[in-house]
Amino acid sequence: MQQKLNLFTSFPTIKNNVETYILIIGDGLCSIQLAYYLQNLNEDAMIITQNQIFSNIHPYPLLTAQQGYLYNSLSTRYDTYFAKLYYNANQETIQDIERIIRKHHLNCNFKQCDSILYANNYIDIKKLENEYECYRNLQIPCNFYQSTNSNPYTTLIMHYQASYHPIHYIQGLLSTIPNFPIYENCKIKDIKENENNYTVYCNGYTIQTDKIIFINPQSIDFINQLYQPYLIQQQLHIKNASDFAIPLNNKLSFYSPTQQNYTLLTQTTFDQIPFVGKIYKDNENLLFVAGCSIWEPLLSCLSAKLLLSHILEKHNLYRFVFSPQRIDFCNEAFQQNNSISL
Fold first, then answer.
1. Torsion (CA) 32, 37, 39, 43 in degrees, nearest 10
2. CATH number of the domain enclosing 139
3. Is residue 23 within 8 Å of 212, Cβ to Cβ?
4. How far is residue 271 from each of residues 83, 101, 250, measured CA to CA in Å?
5. How many domains does the chain divide into?
6. Each residue of 305-317: pLDDT tens digit?
């Protein structure tokens, strides 16, 4: 059963026609993080959600760039430069989150820690060895250990990662933007493109907006038609543990601050990198995020910073890594690798 969290915070619904320069459609950490950035720049923006704003917040605490057998895969599919950019983007985001927490004195149990992958059978140990060689080539700070006894056991440790309490972090962010307009239970009936802007129809009212950002859209038909074939459903079993070790050979296990076992339903992409950017390559006014997977606590914040660069039309070194348009040159690879293994 997927766990839904109630943060005991409610927001109004749309009850009149409104205008805004930037409309964020969708709930969760990415929406709130983007709202934080926009509020600090005094941008005219608002959030609407089709459900309650916190209906899809999940309490796993890892902030880690170590995301399965990822870097060997990225180096093979693309190249080492691409893989290193992905690592750097994640590391910079951890630093950004820490700066925000310290700036506003957010009480969310943030702490630096190592992240660990481990394997205990021959096939996975070989994969982990290949991942370690990739770390060395990319100059990722790490340690690699192999057991010397009769039971095979191998660990790969990535240094300078972090953990926090995501619910407390979101609550803290919200406390810094108390006047940002957020509306929930807004049922979108239609979206119409006008000559110079867009009209969103919901709850019998209209929202006039210049830019629309869709966060994890699952019921927007024109987005689903373009990108749903490249999104893969994940079912991950979360359980409490004494550390943040991630076994790769069977089920993924994480420490849960709620001290409960639960199953998490998420989406990832064909290459395990979220889609962040333009829905159509020639239109900067329609943006979206999808496929943050179980690494949402980190990748949602990373995605918010990338979206901000699009909104402000500023250069960002990592845009092309996360660009949804990478499917244009990965169609053949996707057909050969339409499933993933973490």
1. -120
2. 3.50.50.60
3. yes
4. 12, 31, 20
5. 1
6. 999 999 999 999 9
